[in-house]
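Sample pair:
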Amino acid sequence: MKNIEDRVNKGILGIKPYVPGKTVYEVARERGVNNIIKLASNENPFGMAGKAKDRLSRDAAAGFAYPEVTTEKFRTRLAEKLGIAANAIITGNGGDGIIYALAMTLLNEGDEAIIPEITFPYYEIAVRMMRGNVVSSAMKEYAIDLEDILQKITPKTKMIWLCNPNNPTGLQINKEEINRFLDRVPEQVFVIHDEVYADFADLQAFPDTLEMIRSRRENLFLIRSCSKIYGLAGVRLGYGIGDPDLVSMMYRVRPPFDVSVLAELAGVAALEDDEFYNKTLELTRSEKEYYYQECATRKLFYLPSATNFILIDVKSDCMAIADAMLDSGVIVRPCANYGLPSFIRVTIGIHEQNVRFFTALDRALKQQ
């Protein structure tokens, strides 16, 4: 289209398009390989929670109807499980849907949003979409630097984005740090605490953000998801938790049928699947130790992870390494787009997949 840049929302002109990981279908088509494993997108290696799968198999015909706008059944059950009020919860099309709803609700043109340099790129996309100004916060080595964030707060600051544990580093900010940080953030500045990986975190050290919500800390908002721990990444069901007045405003901009009937059915069933939940955590913990041992054997630097993935320095061009591993049928996430040109992010799979990962990595490294 002629002169399209003059005719679109000026906010999107500064957005770098999100680059998703390669799919199994793409790799099979491009490389002609079979038996492909995808360890790039932090999906659950066990697949979908069994109770959710059974519910969808049984009630798939319910998908003919429009969903109930506020996802009342899921929110009510989730509220009971978490011990919070249902009107403090908003659902969305994955955690991404909550990110967009927050940006649309809170940001005016020219408002500032502070975002760490190395973190989930959707925050910046959502801010720029609303013509907000992104203020980048430097990392402290590979960790989010809360002190640097505090120093960057100005009268124009509207929100701070914290991914905890952080993607792609996998590092966790502990409760003492968060508590001190929140006490110093002005009450008019919203702190968005993205907890989509919190199920895998060290919960004894993790901040009790739910208790903060119960205590009505009005400038704190949480983002969570059913994608990782319950294996519903393709179903798309995320949720946010915060002050009911803010949640009410978010429902004004959230698409009315953002969460499908089937997503809600799967979510309600998944919340009851403690066996699947615990099995996922147990596998993640045990296989994480396997990764640590194998990386140490190869003298590869890695970051101890509070998530279901590990960031590894392959001491080479990460794009070339990831590309070479595709010939072995192993998909990983190169992190050059995150400003980490020698790092790959790998999802923790079942043991056989993790063994294949290191075999493919060794082969790729020898080719460099």
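Residues 96 and 122 are 7 Å apart (CA to CA).
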